[in-house]
Amino acid sequence: MSKSVASKRSSWPRALRRGLLENIATVVIGLGFLMLFQPFAIELYTWSFVTMLAGTVMFIVVSKFPD
After folding, report:
1. Which tens digit of pLDDT belongs to each residue from 12-40?
2. Whole-prediction pTM value?
3. Got the DSSP string for 7-22?
4. DSSP structure class, residue 3
5. Whether the Cβ atoms of residue 45 and residue 38 lie closer than 8 Å to each other
6. What pLDDT is stored for residue 7 in this prediction?
7. Which of 57, 62, 54 is nearest to 32 (CA)?
8. Which of 59, 61, 40 is nearest to 51 (CA)?
9. Distance, CA of 54 to CA of 28 (rounded, Å)
10. Cβ–Cβ < 8 Å for 44, 38
């Protein structure tokens, strides 16, 4: 008889798992692009690069978290 292989459950809190935080990072990157392409506020345009960079770094870090 074969043993059924149980899936490994992560001991990390649910809020710190990859799925939700990757989605948040993607939204931050998208927000940076919207800030870049809007024609109304120069302050938003100025901070768009920092926002996209922060979202990208967050995505890279979060991609190492468990599922």
Report:
1. 788 778 889 999 999 999 999 999 999 99
2. 0.79
3. PPPP-S-GGGSHHHHH
4. P
5. yes
6. 58
7. 54
8. 59
9. 8
10. yes
Residue for token digits 């920092």? 50
Tokens of 10: 């992560």
Say yes or no to pLDDT of 3 above 70: no
The predicted pLDDT at position 12 comes to: 79
E strands, the chain, are none
Burial 4-19 (b: 16+ CB within 10 A, else e): eeeeeeeeeeeeeebe
- Eight-state DSSP code of residue 50: H
What Cα–Cα distance (Å) separates residue 30 from each residue in 34, 35, 49, 61?
Answer: 6, 9, 11, 17
Rounded distance between C-alpha atoms, residue 67 and residue 64, angstroms: 9
| CA 5 to chain CA centroid, nearest Å | 30
